[in-house]
Specification:
Rossmann fold, alpha/beta, Arc Repressor Mutant, subunit A, 14 helices, 5-stranded parallel sheet
Length: about 400
């Protein structure tokens, strides 16, 4: 029987594995100084007892949104007394208005250890807490994952109308630039928000970020400059995703370690690329709202069976008409007893999926079926069906 002793050995490559984690927040966040300063400027009124504006932050995965917010809120908490509080909510876990408000209530008040309180009771208690001249700032990470989001936003923003002193503000973080298009007009009109967009990192920026992490996480001379440059270039070419770049470098280091090498080179980076890409595709899909996953499932199914218009000269190989995908989407919704969304919402889902790199689209131009959008998957349809099927069934 093997012994743990053969596995408990000091790594020749890793000095601190945690530094290579996407969740690690370095003291200095490269290339996000402008966004950090804007966030600090937006939150500063709360340190003076005034209500800050709501903030909505958008950007692709791996563009530093959550890291920047976490760094700024950490500095805020160091400065603020007991008159201001910032509560961070992971909306993938706390995905309903009740769960969000209960999490907030537990963080700022005693007596909420047991569930059973109704939403109105929790809401009134929070009003009472904030009404004592306190500022409550709620960070909603992956805000678009909240079911009945309109209800939550309307409740939180209108709360300020009932407060003579103090206030409640929101920092919403989303990968979807157009997620607000799905909101009720009443919710949108009450937000009065500042919007920020985090752009993807460029290849030189990713290489600088990886160099910073490599110096902290690897032993001296354990990684070549070529490996860092290649990992940054690959991630920039794919999406500008720092998380992707870090995972490639970390996985490549693990492969070098498993091969009992004492140095990570571009050979391991090339080998790690495909493994990491599949992991991130799976992770990206699992984070999608249900309707996005159904649209992706519809595209994957049609990609296997083929477009019913594939004999037309205007259809490029592998592409599908937007209209036939929408028909498939509505058909699947009926089968799983879900109400299909409107064509307008469907088009926003396509934009989100394209932004995430899960599909590509082109305009057909004028032809037999007129001016329309043609859609093509960016990954194996069989693999996407396997991932989405598991999520929808679960």
């Amino acid at each position: 029987m093997p012994s743990f002793d053969e596995f408990i050995i000091e790594s020749k490559i890793f000095k601190d594995r945690d530094v290579l984690s996407p969740h690690y927040i370095p003291d200095t966040l490269h290339f996000r100084d402008h966004q950090i300063r804007e966030l600090m400027s937006s939150l500063a009124p709360a340190l003076m007892g005034k209500k800050p504006r709501n903030i909505f932050i958008y950007g692709k995965t791996g563009t530093g949104k959550t890291c920047s917010v976490r760094q700024v809120t950490g500095k805020f908490l160091e400065k603020s007394g007991d008159r201001s509080r910032i509560i961070y909510i992971n909306c993938r876990i706390h995905n309903k208005p009740y769960r969000v408000l209960l999490k907030v209530a537990k963080a700022v008040m005693e007596g909420f250890d047991k569930q059973g309180y109704g939403l109105p009771h929790i809401y009134e208690r929070l009003l009472g807490w904030a009404g004592d001249g306190k500022q409550l700032i709620i960070v909603l990470d992956e805000i678009d994952m909240v079911k009945h989001l309109d209800e939550l936003l309307y409740m939180l923003t209108r709360a300020n109308d009932e407060l003579e002193a103090g206030g409640i503000s929101i920092i919403g973080i989303s990968n979807r630039l157009l997620f607000k298009d799905d909101l009720d007009p009443r919710s949108k009109s009450s937000l009065y928000e500042r919007e920020m967009v985090f752009p993807p990192y460029t290849a030189p920026q990713l290489q600088a970020i990886l160099k910073q992490r490599a110096e902290l996480g690897f032993h001296e001379n354990a990684v070549t400059t070529g490996a860092i440059s290649l990992a940054g270039a690959v991630a920039a070419q794919e999406s500008g995703d720092a998380r992707y770049a870090l995972k490639i470098l970390s996985r490549a280091a693990e492969m070098a370690e498993e091969s009992k090498k004492d140095k990570l080179t571009d050979v391991e980076v090339k080998a790690a690329r495909d493994l990491v890409e599949l992991d991130l595709v799976k992770e990206t899909i699992e984070k999608l709202p249900e309707n996005h996953q159904v649209v992706l499932y519809a595209i994957a199914r049609l990609s296997i069976s083929g477009s019913k218009y594939r004999r037309l000269d205007e259809v490029q190989d592998g592409y599908l008409f937007s209209g036939e995908v929408y028909e498939e989407y509505t058909s699947i919704c009926k089968k799983i007893k879900k109400q299909p969304k409107t064509a307008r919402s469907y088009r926003s889902y396509l934009n989100d999926l394209e932004m995430l790199g899960l599909l590509t689209s082109v305009e057909s131009g004028k032809g037999i079926r007129g001016h329309t959008k043609l859609i093509k998957l960016g990954h194996s349809p069989q693999e996407l069906i396997r991932i989405v099927s598991k999520n929808l069934e679960g």
